[in-house]
Automatic annotation (TrEMBL):
Organism: Nitzschia inconspicua
Chain ranges passing through the membrane: none
Name of the protein described by the UniProt record: Integrase core domain containing protein
GO BP: any one term: DNA integration
Record InterPro entries: Integrase_cat-core, Retrovirus_Pol_polyprotein
Positions of the Integrase catalytic domain: 1-142
Length: 189
């Protein structure tokens, strides 16, 4: 399970052994709620692990609104999918080296891959937030010197939106130009 704070790019990745809704809810509670500021809402994909039990646990017990992303907006889940792609690449590199022979060895290899991906991905996505780490943004403290720091969220939001706009312009520039004009069609006699 991959959990991301979109404002700070803070990432947590934990394996789901059973893939049930209650296990997913416990992972969110133990991994995120116990360590980081409580989110106002949680956006999930439509996977089976995010069923009604998951929603009930987060909404009723923790007061977090749960919303699902739609198939009409695949970009809404793009950061998670990119991280999952990185996890797959890391698994393909590490698994032959480690050569796990038992279930416990396999779990150890998977945990190593998840830890590697979790620490590699925030470094690659820090362009919109400047030189600040996700942890520094989440806790408003310098993570090395342990001193308070001030961040201007409006500047970060503006920078992130500017980066999104530049990426969209670059993607749209590759499209074929087409001007849909109405034409007068004559009638045949």
């Amino acid at each position: 399970m991959t959990i991301i704070d979109p404002a700070t790019n803070l990432i947590e990745i934990q394996p789901l052994l059973n893939g049930t809704a209650m296990e997913a809810a416990h992972v969110v509670e133990d991994t995120w709620i116990a360590r980081y500021p409580r989110p106002v809402r949680c956006i999930t994909d439509n996977g089976p692990e995010f069923g009604q039990e998951f929603r009930d646990c987060l909404e009723k017990n923790l007061g977090i609104k749960v919303r699902s992303s739609t198939a009409r907006n695949p970009q809404g889940n793009s950061i998670v999918e990119r991280i999952h792609q990185s996890i797959g690449l890391i698994l393909r590199v590490i698994t032959p080296e480690e050569n796990p022979r038992s279930f416990e060895d396999g779990k150890r290899v998977i945990r190593r891959c998840l830890a590697t991906a979790m620490h590699a991905c925030p470094c690659a996505s820090s362009g919109a937030i400047g030189d600040l780490s996700p942890g520094a943004l989440a806790f408003h403290r310098d993570m090395l010197l342990d001193i308070p720091m001030q961040t201007d969220i409006t500047v970060l939001t503006t920078n992130r939106q500017g980066m999104i706009n530049r990426n969209l312009l670059r993607a749209n520039a590759k499209r074929i130009k087409h001007d849909a004009q109405t034409s007068i069609v004559g009638t045949l006699r």
